[in-house]
User: What shape does this take?
Amino acid sequence: MNISKPLLPLAAAALLVVSGFVVLYVNVIAKLVHDWATDDNYSHGFLIVPIALYLAWERRARLATARVRGNYLGLAVLIGSVLVLMAGVLGAELFLTRISIIGVVIGMILFVWGWDYLRILAFPVAFLILMVPLPAIIFNQIAFPLQLLASRVGEVSLGALNIPVLREGNVIVLANTSLEVAEACSGIRSLISLLTLGIVFGYLVDPRPAMRTMIALSTIPIAVVANGLRVAGTGIAAHYYGPAAAEGFFHTFSGWLVFVFAFALLFAVERVLRRLAPPPPLGPAGASPQAA
Assistant: This one.
């Protein structure tokens, strides 16, 4: 059921809903920001909201001409999301409290402005999901296989260079030391960050949803390969220069170097995809077709 509102009641409804959002989520957001600041796996969270706001601002011309017809279904979404928040608080489940933020935002847009606004803002709202840390059970299910995969890539690479190596699970045994591919070295940190970068990069360089999806998905194998090469590089340094070479500055610097290398690979993948499937011709105004 649609509900038409004049400007003043519309502004009052928006203010009321936003105020309620602040009251409900002040503690949840404070804890979320704390995790961004203390967990390197999710430090990119600080960038998600500003980017989402930019993506929404970029759609301002379409929003200005969109029909404002609030829908009561949005109120149902709001109530359901608040119930998810309550379940998360009572069950001490951070993921539920945080993911309910997305539901509340969707409910607010739909209730106050309507379906047209929600369709236009669908991508910026969906992008907010990247700010929410994964539940521990899912994170561990991803991190441990990545540890083993990085260890395997490192072992194969070192063996190809005729460096004596033995792998036991996620431990790489060299002649003069042993290297443990810990959770922090699993590559999940670079995978999450590179996936976020890939989504933004794909959005900026190509208007086609299929190409954007392919660019984003390509970050997964790129991150895995890049991190495996980092493990191999650490093993090479440890073999030739001793265990100390695999720690401290080299270990930190190699992480940044590998991320730059991974982005270069992502750029190369985009170039290849563009050659294989060129974008459509420019429209009569000299611009590409409007993207979502």
Notes: The two ends are 26 Å apart (CA to CA). Residues 2-132 form one domain. DSSP finds eleven helices and five strands in the chain. The first strand starts at residue 2 and ends at 3.
